[in-house]
Amino acid sequence: MFKAANGEEIFVIDAHIALWDGSPENQVNQHGEEFISCFYDYHKNLSPSENLWDYEKFRKFTPEDLVNDVIVNGYADMAIFQPVFLTDFYKKPFGDIEENNKLVKKHPGRFISNGSFDPRDGERGLKYLEYLKAKHNVQGVKLYTAEWRGSSKGYKLTDEWTQRYLEKCLELGIKNIHIHKGPTITPLNRDAFDVADVDQAASLNPGLNFIIEHCGLPRLEDFCWIATQEKNVYAGLSVVMPFIHTRPRYFAEIISELLYWLDEDRIIFGSDYAIWEPKWLIEKFINFELPEDIKQETGTDLTMGVKKKILGENIARLYGIDIEKQKEILWNSKKAVR
Amino acid sequence: MNNQEAVFEKLNLVYDPELDKSVLEMQFIEEVNIQVDTVTVVMRLPTFWCSPNFAFIMAEDIRDRLLELEWVNKVLLNLKDHCSSDDINKGVSEGKSFEEVFANLANGNLNEVRNTFRIKSFMSRQEHLLRELMSFGAENEMLSLRIKDLNNHPAITDKKVWKRYLTLRSELGFSNQPEELAFFKSTGEQIDPLKLSEYLLEARRTRMSMEFNANHCLGLLNTRYQPKLAGEGKEIENESCTPTRV
Q1: Other C-beta atoms within 10 Å of A287: how many?
Q2: What pLDDT, on a 0 to 100 scale, did the predictor assign at position A152?
Q3: Are B98 and B110 within 8 A, CB to CB?
Q4: Would you call B245 and A247 a contact, using CB atoms and an 8 Å cutoff?
Q5: Which among B53, B105, B212 has CB closest to A250?
Q6: Quick check: helix, strand or coil at residue A4?
Q7: Chain A CB contacts of B58 below 8 Å
């Protein structure tokens, strides 16, 4: 909960967090180290200096760190785990669903644990989805299309097997498909960040919601184009948020573009914890205003009402969370963390 | 011009296709070593995972541009710290094509992606120029201006943008003769004056995306190679018409 200057209490859901183990003990090869080190560069490049972590902690932090940074100090009333496995690089999954679920159980009502699938797993993976639904009642999955699997350097949303998985998701009631669009998708001669396959997947599967993390960056223009056509496509603000600190003008331009092309009901806050901590992101976001010239050119505005939608109301709708009820449960419960 | 200057002049013509910035502007070149007729270029990128296709395009262009110098007989490329370093270095230094190097991961050459980004760059530079003309007060006549009118137009404050725009025009197959129209769509069609604001909004998105990516990449590069960079924390030259910082 964030208490605004006027005393208003704002319900916050951080739609993109992770608990990971990138430590040397868990790395399979050099790629494990390269991957976590790249995350750390993101962290260092865009965090305010007072929020920098040391590398050792960044590679592996504790579940208690996460609860403190996200819920206790980070204003988030709830948070959603978006795991990536990266089993070619790490011994235990980089983001481990079973570990995430320990926190779900320990802090009832606070965390939502999403699953993940990889269409290259074939029939076996379809069974795994059934397991995830039966055991953990997952409502969403995180897809990392750039995951390496032996000689394969990724998959596309338009692959025949991906469509089978998406149909399976619909059948099981796993409605929220969070997609990290990353590079290195074959064929390598094409634009590796191409977001065009989202278009086809979204129109073929109108019963599912597609939340595109990083709102399609670095292909923002293509993403906006797709999102105007497909009403079940959402913009996830992970990675975009921290630019509020280093490049506020760009942040303003991007938000105004999203508001212009998508409208205020399809933009979703995510900190991408532990790359960035929600605390400073939310503080800056609440106080942020669009510059006058951008407001005029795009005819958009980032009012407190819009901010509340982005910080919680929009994602609550996708996950069937009744914010008023949830407030009562969480804010009045003595067992709750806060 | 000595050999080293000649090499840097050529390197300045090599662009990151995705960011529409030269490899020198982006600080991707760490070292250049000239031994008689052999030039070794050490290159580094913002992340270990930067797209191999864009990395290959730059590496290939470096090789081809430097081989244009008469005294250069061999170009050795050393792309450091990248997931495809070995493949790219070996391939480019041995004069191989992208398809040969990534036979298992590619199903064609890089022309399509090159062209996609040429069009994006063309739109982005054009948007910049049109906005400069608008703030100069030339909105009414700007769509009928010709190349010759723009060559020395007082509205254009940054001549580099105009020069780059001309290069992109010719790469897309358009003529730069003095009597040619300065502005049209990347397809060659005329820009409808009634739909100008819509057209500019679309182009603005493209320009913004490219600029944003360039800044992001430069930031990551600085973070990754901080001790080795002279101009630490230097922000990329801002070419947008609106300030990039609040």
Answers
A1: 11
A2: 87
A3: yes
A4: yes
A5: B212
A6: coil
A7: none
Total count of residues recorded for chain A? 338
Cβ atoms within 10 A of the Cβ of A257, count?
A: 24
Kindly list the structural domains of chain A, giving each domain's residue range(s) and its CATH number in brackets, ordered by start.
Answer: 2-332 (3.20.20.140)
CA triple A48-A50-A52, angle to 5 deg: 75
B99-133 burial: b if 16+ Cβ within 10 Å, else e: eebbeebbeeebeebbeebbbbbbbbbbbbbbbbb
Q: pLDDT (tens digit, 9 = 90+) per residue, B52-106? A: 999 999 999 999 999 999 999 999 999 999 999 999 999 999 999 999 999 888 8
Average pLDDT of B189-204?
A: 94
Tokens of A72: 């206790």
In sequence order, the 6+-apart residues with CB closer than 8 A to the CB of B108 are A187, A189, B99
Q: How far apart are CA B242 and CA B208, in angstroms?
A: 11
What tokens appear for A175 in the block?
A: 């409605």
* Alpha carbon distances (Å) from A106 to A275, A332, B122: 23, 17, 55
Going through chain A in order, the beta strands assigned E by DSSP cover 2-3, 9-10, 13-17, 78-81, 111-113, 115-116, 140-144, 176-180, 209-213, 233-236, 267-268
Give the Cα separation of B218 and B94 in Å (integer): 29
Residue B15 CA to residue B34 CA, distance in Å, equals 21
The answer to whether the predicted template modeling score (pTM) of the entire model surpasses 0.90 is yes
Q: How far apart are CA A201 and CA A220, in angstroms?
A: 18
CA distance B40 to B114: 25
Q: B47 and A41 in contact by Cβ < 8 A? A: yes
Tell me which chain A residue has its CA closest to the CA of residue B242.
Answer: A293
> Which amino acid is it at A91?
K
Contact B128, B240 (CB under 8 A): yes
Q: What local confidence, expressed as pLDDT, does residue A183 receive? A: 57
Q: Check if the beta carbon of residue A236 is closer than 8 Å to that of residue A16.
A: yes
Q: How far is B96 from chain A (nearest CA, A)?
A: 15
**Is A247 in Cβ contact with B244 (below 8 Å)?**
yes
What's the CA gap between A50 and A279, in Å, rounded? 12
Which of B240, B91, B31, B242 shows the shortest CA–CA distance to A292?
B242
Q: Counting every residue, how long is chain B?
A: 246
Task: Give the tokens for residue A223.
Answer: 């993403």
Structure tokens at B12: 């300045």
Element (H, E) at A196: helix A196-204
CB A192 within 8 A of CB A183: yes
pLDDT, tens digit, for every residue of A29-42?
999 999 999 999 99
Q: Do B205 and A221 touch (CB under 8 A)?
A: yes
